[in-house]
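Folding follows sequence. Below is one example:
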Amino acid sequence: MDRAEHPSRRALFVGGLAGAAAALAGCASTRADPATTGTSPPAQPTTPAAAFTRLMEGNRRWVSGDLHHPDRDPNRRQLVAQEQEPFGSILSCIDSRVPPELLFDTGLGDLYVMRTGGQALGPVVTGSVEYGPMTSGTPLIVVLGHQRCGAVKAAYESLRDGKTLPGNLQAIADALRPAYEQALREGGADPVETMARAQVTLTATDLRSNQDLAPLVEKGALAVVGAYYSLDTGEVEVLAGAPAP
């Protein structure tokens, strides 16, 4: 048979690349791009229930792996460059495995985030949590504790053994003492986990009854939710304060 009747390997390779490129272009053209289609990202939630729903939907995506990665592009950066309007304030632990923006699948300008060891409160931290609700009407605060918290464990052992922690770490143990005392009263197989959960509920209660935040809570403009993150599953469990739909 004549050589001309057989396409060369190079021709087949180039043809295959062209086909693959066309297929990829076709797939890309089906994705909605706000810059080219005129569509806009969803508006920021303005009620406690809507903000809570948005967060929990994001966490479900985090657990399943079906992430949307919203609000993470140059257009979003430009949109929020002059002003911000976050729909939630998160007080979480400093733990490197518990980044709120990731585990709630949110992006730039969506959340105020405060992080302290064991969600320990103090005047500056409380003021930072108050900032969103009191200055821009942020409708949701979430106090987020987590499984196997090193700060809580260190505080528990320090308070149990009567040993002072080095440096300013002792300030964390002192701030967590009420949770430690509650854990002693409650008992349980794992006192550190009991203490970690107690710290969440006590902190959320403190913020909910704060003289400046309480009026917002009472009129339904703000919800303060206590929640607990599982390192094993990625799931956020609500402990207290979920707003009514």
